[in-house]
Amino acid sequence: MIQQLSVKKPAAEESAAAAPLSKSKERPRGQSGQWVLGGGVLFVVALAGSLVAATVPRLRHDKELDAAAARSISTPPTVAVAIARRAPVLSEQTLPGNALPFREAALYARTTGYLKRWTVDIGDRVHEGQLLAEISSPDVDDQLAQARANLALAKTNLQVSEANLELAKITLDRDIASGNATAPEVVDQDRAQVKTTAAQVESAKSSIEVNQATVQQYTDLQSFQKIVAPFPGVITARNVDPGALLTADNPSETRELFHLVQTDPLRVFVNVPQVYATTIAPGQTAIVYRQENPEKQFTGKVTRTANALDPNTRTLLTQVDVPNPKDALRPGMYLRVKFVAIRDTPSVLIPSAAVVTRNDGPEIALLDDNKTVRYRKVTLGRDYGAEIEVVAGLEGGETVIVRPGDALAEGQTVQPAPSAK
Fold first, then answer.
1. Residue range 118-143: mean pLDDT, rounded
2. Beta strands, E only, 76-124
3. Which of 7, 52, 236, 308 has fewest C-beta within 10 Å?
4. How many helices (H) does the chain have, and how many strands (E)?
């Protein structure tokens, strides 16, 4: 076997061979350090540049703010203003109303019997006195005939009594004229007979009056067999058919025969709040319309008011009559009613935001001719939301400051903005 023998190089040769290798390794390490140093310098420069770029605009902005603050100190504040205007002479208030028929009636039977026939039905228009239905009551007819017979008998009895009275008077006069030929007791009997027959005459007369009243009673009951319309209107209900038994004078247990309403004119009731109650008076014009069709309006008049406010709601019940010949409005509708009244002393209207509330009452900030703030106490009236009414303290035409707040002081100079409505 051949053995390979390793020959050990001398140490000097090993060191000489390793020297170039170490030099080659040390050269790249020095170059990377130079690159790191250059990158650090560039980062520092970039950081400094970004700091400068961020600081300069901020300093410039702070300078601008300081300049604006200085200008704002020297410039008067700008405020929104509005012109106080006179309220219209005509005052309008629109309130909800409830439509009801001008007249309505529930018709019941006033005589007992069976319904013979009816001549109208639901929705039919009728005039006053028109026949609506007939009731068959044979017993009433019989009672009327009996009453008339009793009346005739009473009249005949009166004639008999009057004849007897006349005979008694003749007998008495003859006996008195005969003198002593007639006994006194006979004369006394004749006098008593005259008085008796005179009483019979009066009794017969009273009997006639009683029978006349009975005849009139059954005549009225017989007239009730015909149901007639008490006023012109529209039939809104019919609850019976021919052959139905009708009982008189028992409306709690008997259904009404007909229900009749008069819709022309139409009554509209409105509950007027206390704030408007003093402006409502009979004869005043009112405009009525349906909420879903406000363009079609109807002119009515206030006919009456309750003349006193309901203590529970603090409202005044008001009736408005509206002509309704074509039935454009129906009973039961929800309507809107616009009242038009003339103001005795027209007030001044200003924006609600112009009012300043103080402990001693409301005030208004006014702007005089020198653009100086002047506060004035006022008396407020109705609040309309965006606007409020001033009843004392303003005359109209003044320039008021809107939303003055608490920053504006008396006598301070301000700059008005364009007028706001």
1. 92
2. 78-83, 85-86, 90-107, 113-118
3. 7
4. 4, 22
